[in-house]
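If you are new to this repository, start here. Below is one unmodified record pulled from the training split, so you can see the exact layout before writing a loader.
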Amino acid sequence: MGIIGWVVLGLLAGIIAKMLMPGRDPGGFILTILIGIAGALLGGWLGKVIFGVDSVDGFFQLSTWIAAIVGSLILLIVYRLVVGRRHS
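And here is the target side for that same chain:
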């Protein structure tokens, strides 16, 4: 998968993660992409470490999307915990 594929996957995974965890985040479009891309990488790495499978096979593979969304959710939770503490 090329860099444009990672950006598109990251954007969509970040948007889906924000839809699954609604709330006010002090981040916009760029932060959504970055959380999504990092989440895709994190999800792929976790899938390989925990389950021993290469979960980032291709753009249209279900395992790629699940790994990206789960990774994005994890990063969104961490982001909210860190930013929430700073604003309190």
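Two things worth knowing about this chain: The mean pLDDT is 78. DSSP finds three helices and no strands in the chain.
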